[in-house]
Amino acid sequence: MVQLSFDAHLCKTCPTGDCLVKCQYLDVDREKAGEEMVKISEGKDSFVLQDCVTCYACEEYCKRGNHPFYLITERRQEKGILVAPRAITRQWVNIGEPQGKYKVGKIRDKVLSLGFMPEYLESVKGELFEDLMPSYVFGQEFFCNVVYIHFADTAIIKQRLPRVIDHFKSLGVREVVFMHDECYGAFASLAPAYGMEVPFKAVHYFEYLYQRLRDLRDKIRPLRLKAAYQRPCSARLCPDKHHFVRDIMNLIGVELVERQYQDENALCCSGILSLCFGYDIAHDVKARNLADMVKHGAQYCVFNCPACQNTLGAEVAKMGIRPIHMIDLCRMAIGEKSPNGVRPT
Amino acid sequence: MKNILQALADAVGRDYVSDQPEEMYFYARDPGLMPPHQPDYVVVPGTVEEIQTVVRLASREKIPIVPMGAGMALTGLIIPLKGGIVLDMKRMNRILEVHEKARYALVEGGTSQGFLKSYLEEHHPRLRHSIPDSPATATIAANVMIHGQGRLTQQYGFNSDMVSGLEVVLASGEICRIGSCAVSPDWFSKGAPFPDLSGLFLGWFGATGIITKIAVKLYPRKKMRDVEIFLTDDEELVPSMIYELTHTEMVEDINIFVQPRPMIFRGNHHIALFFTGDTDEELEFKRKLIWHALDPYIKSKDGGFMGIPPVMKPTLLDMPQKSVSRFADVKKGGGFEYSGPIILVEKYPQCARKIVELAARYDLGYSGMARIIGRGHSMMYGFAFTFNRADSEMMARTRSALCEISLFVLELGGVFWKPTVEEQKMALEKMDPNTRALMKMIKANLDPLGIMNPGNWEVA
């Protein structure tokens, strides 16, 4: 089970300070990194509490078992340090409020959780999801709420998550395939770390897609195209699943371009940056990210998170790169969609 | 009265006149809350000459005459309070001229907003007019007659400020041209450099004359249009935010809304900012300046720009906004009315608090909405309530809430926009006595028999 405990001694003896040294939004050397994390763990003030942009990446950078981002988040909440403007936080908290408008398909042991991302209602059609659909859930009642760590509000996660678990429990499901890293991370690691019992097995949809594509191997026509992958912040909460990106690409004949901002070095889509910090940082990050895709010859930009796609999709297209969600890319590989997104005749 | 009906039929043709009860029923009311009153006749003229004939007949017989566009004002301005003739202008919908280089359009008095918009899109794609958010059937003449606002109001003021000439039929039946068109074939100015006589008609709701032709200024229609929405939970900060935004001169249109439903909107003030450009560079340049103008509020965490999902943008960019019509049916039953005073932007906090207070006290669905006028010289603040027409008790509560708003607004230094007859009386009572006397003099001279939309702007 994941423990979200934090051991300051590990930071004091850390040879790299990777959590902050590797941070793409703060300029910190190894010595300073250790000092700041110790200060934070001791409840003291640190500029990191003000300047952290909530990319979650330090969770992955730290290889010593500490959880720097969760620590930063808890301290921010304790100290009342706002990450986002109050109105933005309120809007997001409102969005996730259960309203009794959820949808439930024909529930079986294994269910697909679409969170409350309406984009997925259209995506999860065809052979890829044949052995799951129409066993699905959709709506705020099934929303993990983990996004609120962006707003340093773990209290609302702790308040809502048990109710979400209860909703799943009432359906009697044994296995849930989650369509978002945060949701997967919530039930695979965060809820247990918070001491909540999760009465089902959480499966990341990349893992599901990979297995499904292997089952459909005969139908795959290698796409032979070059793509950049826009890794979302939430992928840092389940880094052990990141290898499936490459595994899937290899299976469907897509070459991931070896660009600067990928894998551990990925840049934020800039959505959360503009919400919380304004134009300049968001614009700068976006511009560097897009230039990197162009420079390395990407024909497609593959998205995992719908929010990233909403933020970057149109910008990517203006650069002559086709934005596509991972599911649509996979559907393209088995002939369910043509490169322009239309089902082939 | 049969001879009147026949005389009207002789003027406009039998198909375009009626005294039948089913038609009188409809022409007795508007979609708002004002009590209905039936006309005696409805006439749908097709030419200026026909209007002249009808007005002369009304004058001779001392029959009230009420000109009507699409009847969308909601405040009862086209309800024939003293019966008589409703003059429905919808057949007079021709676009007579679009002067591309001088950027104006000359249209007949019954031309709808939607018709001009689509005509310009097809024939003059580089031009646009200031379209209001009323349904597309609302007419251009009626809109300026009530000093309406539109999508270019932030930059250029009331839609009536964008008039560049009028032709009116007076109560005597004579035709009168107002503006450059009185001395020139060109309709480029409603007054300057001569005395501006348009004020004898604009804002009078047809109580001094009937607009039969109107020229409106047109403006560049850029190739691209985009929207950003800034959120804040602190109404006290809204006026200074608006000041910073209008100072950039980058924003074409600013609307503010606050409403409890759907959940995404609860508890925040939403400042919707519309801007345009001919190139990506121009659009991005404007976006950057707009964002930078509000940087201090983002840094202090007092406000921030929301991420607008791509699926939401077409709805936001729609002109006119269909969300207004959807709001009208929130309570089911299709009832919707608002009081929309024109008031200083600095009064926004008081207005925003008042609507929440009244909605709670009267148990009503609400939406507060403001439109900035002329770079912050003033705003229209709409106190909008939705009700079920089949629920008379709910309608009564809505009336009471709107009544309270009228008093509140006057006390706050605001003036009524498209006032109901009762609000007109309240305004006249508060008005400087000399101004009131001047209005009386104008009305008495232009409508000596008191037949033009009687009940409206009547100075005792």
Give an overview of the whole structure.
- The complex is a heterodimer of chains A (345) and B (460).
- By secondary structure, chain A is α/β, with parallel strands linked by helices.
- Chain A folds into 3 domains: 8-79, no CATH class; 93-209, Rossmann fold, CATH 3.40.50; 217-333, 3-Layer(aba) Sandwich (Rossmann fold).
- Chain A has 16 helices and 9 strands.
- Chain A has helices spanning 8-12, 18-21, 30-41, 47-51, 57-61, 68-79, 86-95, 119-123, 154-171, 181-193, 205-215, 243-252, 271-277, 279-295, 306-318, 326-333, and strands spanning 103-104, 110-113, 136-138, 175-178, 201-204, 225-230, 254-256, 300-303, 322-325.
- In chain A, the strands form 2 sheets. Chain A has a 5-stranded mixed sheet. A 4-stranded parallel sheet of chain A has the order 7-6-8-9, sandwiched between helices.
- In chain A, helix 11 (205-215) runs parallel beside helix 12.
- Chain B is an alpha+beta fold.
- Chain B has 3 domains: 2-88, 2-Layer Sandwich (Uridine Diphospho-n-acetylenolpyruvylglucosamine Reductase, domain 2); 95-220, Uridine Diphospho-n-acetylenolpyruvylglucosamine Reductase, domain 3 (2-Layer Sandwich), CATH 3.30.465; 224-412, Vanillyl-alcohol Oxidase, Chain A, domain 3.
- Helices cover 33% and strands 22% of the residues of chain B.
- The longest helix of chain B is centred in the last third of the chain and has 21 residues, at 392-412.
- The two termini of chain B are 30 Å apart.
- At the A-B interface, helix 7, helix 13 and helix 15 of A face helix 8, helix 9 and strand 15 of B.
**Total number of helices of chain A:** 16
Q: Judging by the overall fold, what is the CATH architecture of the largest domain in chain A?
A: 3-Layer(aba) Sandwich
Alpha-carbon distance between the two ends of chain A: 49 Å
- Uncertain parts of chain B: none
**SSE class of chain B:** alpha+beta
Q: Outline the low-pLDDT stretches of chain A.
A: none
CATH topology (fold) name of the largest domain in chain A: Rossmann fold
